[in-house]
Amino acid sequence: MCLEVNPEDIKDSDEKTIIIATEPLTENEEWEKIEGLKAFENGEFVKT
Prior knowledge:
The chain has 48 residues and is mainly β. The chain has strands at residues 39-41, 44-47. The protein contains no helices and two strands.
């Protein structure tokens, strides 16, 4: 399946976008597997 997401289509210019996936979405980028539920604020890990 091919899925294309353009965050600019679904958010205001002052908002940030986070995409959560169960598997890597691309092959040419490094993906980090996160175990369990984590909370992030401004791109920084804040708590489990």
